[in-house]
Amino acid sequence: GYWRMPEKTKAEFRDDGFFITGDLGKIDAKGYVHILGRGKDLVISGGFNVYPKEIESEIDAMPGVIESAVIGVPHADFGEGVTAVVVCNKGTEVTEAGVMQALDGRLAKFKMPKRVFVVDELPRNAMGKVQKNILRDTYAKIYSK
């Protein structure tokens, strides 16, 4: 359990003793396990499940891109709008239009980001993990206009 956190222990462990990790995955026809992302990171846009990891992998493979984070933020029409935040190499010209063009045809339309933001760095916690909650808070109002 969690040290000195009985409420969190109760919430995260099932009655049968199994721990809920929050990881999402699938087992394919050959029996291979594929990690799709985290349950908290899942974006539901227009009723479709969008796994940020899939989109991040496509963006991260683009020339000039160092890393990306894909989040869902409130959207009046879709519930959540898929939003990408991208960090690129200094001196590299990575634009919202360029990312969208590169993704076109590589992702289903419902998985395409509605917006792409290019930033200098992603917010991280002390362990170096990207803090998607901060990104969601930062970009929460972009579709409300």
Q: What is the topological layout?
A:
Layout: H1 6-12, E1 23-27, E2 33-38, E3 43-45, E4 48-50, H2 52-60, E5 65-75, E6 79-88, H3 96-103, E7 115-119, H4 132-139
Parallel strand pairs: 6-7
Antiparallel strand pairs: 1-2, 3-4, 5-6
For the record, the CATH class of the largest domain is Alpha Beta
Largest sheet: 3 strands, mixed
The side-by-side strand order for the widest beta sheet comes to 5-6-7
Percentage of residues assigned to helices: 10-25%
Unreliable spans are none
Shape: globular
Structural class: alpha+beta
Number of helices: 4
Written as H for each helix and E for each strand, in order along the chain, the element string is: HEEEEHEEHEH
Q: Provide the CATH topology of the largest domain.
A: GMP Synthetase, Chain A, domain 3
